[in-house]
Amino acid sequence: MLLKPPAITPTDLWQSVKIVKFVVWNTLLLSKIMKKLFIAVFVLSATAMVARLSAHAADVDDPVVRILAIGNSFSEDAVDQYFHEICEAAGKKVIIGDLYIPGCPLERHYLNARTDSAAYRSRRIGFDGVTITAEPVRLSSALRTDEWDFISFQQSSPLSGLYSSYGDLKPLMAYVDSLSDGSPRYMWHQTWAYSPGSTHGAFPTYGSDQKVMYDSIMGASRQVIADHPALDFVIPAGTAIQTARTVSGNLDLTRDGYHLDYVTGRYIAACTWFEAIFGESVVGNPYHPEGMSSQEARMAQEAAHSAVSSPFAVISATDR
Question: Is residue 177 exposed (0-12), middle (13-18) or buried (19+ Cβ within 10 Å)?
């Protein structure tokens, strides 16, 4: 038996029309709301993107160059004195960080990285020349204090000429890379040989011979650059010191047989850092420390300039 469909009254029909009109009106209203919401989200996203791009542009235009040394007392000799003044005299604004442990080799730097040890002394020289010293400091926290433009690595002086001891450099660099903001350029700080009469306990490793030690350091620093493409360049402080020794006839230039003397030695190293990083000749820079004559300053600057042009060998006066 077929069932008859229910009768549709005029009232039912009117109610159906009202429902359809309600649905259509609300659909149109919702469409307008979604459109406005989409526009708002788009504007916010665009604003955020512009802000990020503006911030990046500000970073690119930032005239302050940030330089961090991960080292030991030899980095202290090189950058904690005179380097800021040389940069300032050349019109450069720099922030210099030196994260160091006396005598610290690459192996210990990497151990400190893996264990996040607060084992460092930190010295930070602002672009205004004000120095802030702190300890103990973690490598991880030092890497985050600034968006460093340049970061240097080095081996401890007893091991500087023994390339077999450089095995922890690559994982150390990977660790630094994982925590660094921006895209810092990595540098190898080539250190110097001891004075001929040095009583350092590691000097017999090199036959207690300055030239043997210098040649060993040169071989190791050549190899470290060849084996580590992430190292952008070498800072040839070792060759600069050896060049000055050769030119001046003073084969020492240290205060204790291995640390640089407080005036000439440290000034030569600082000049070398300046020219290696900025690619500008340091010869003629108007700054030199008190107690140094203009003639001595010129010799130091020329030794640094010569080393940057020939990082792994002393250029004799006749070859220049």
Answer: middle
Q: What is the DSSP letter of 256?
A: S
pLDDT digits (tens, 9 = 90+) for 180-206: 988 999 999 999 999 999 999 999 999
pLDDT tens for each residue of 38-88: 444 333 343 333 333 333 333 445 699 999 999 999 999 999 999 999 999
Helices of type H across 80-168: 83-89, 106-115, 139-145
0.90 surpassed by pTM: no
Strand 185-190 and strand 93-100: pairing? unpaired
Strands 118-125 and 231-236: unpaired
Mean pLDDT, rounded, of the chain: 87
DSSP secondary structure letter of residue 65: E
Q: Per-residue b/e over 121-142, b at no fewer than 16 CB within 10 Å? A: bbbbbebeeeeeeeeebbbbeb
The token duo for 120 is 């460092």
Q: Which residues contact 85 (CB under 8 A, 6 or more apart)?
A: 129, 287, 289
ω into residue 136 within 30 of 0, thus cis? yes
Residue 150: its pLDDT value, please?
A: 98
CA–CA gap between residue 204 and residue 161 (Å, rounded): 12
Distance between CA atoms of residues 170 and 64, nearest Å: 28
- Specify whether the CB–CB gap between 264 and 301 falls below 8 A: no
Both tokens assigned to 231: 């190292």
Q: Name residue 144's amino acid.
A: R
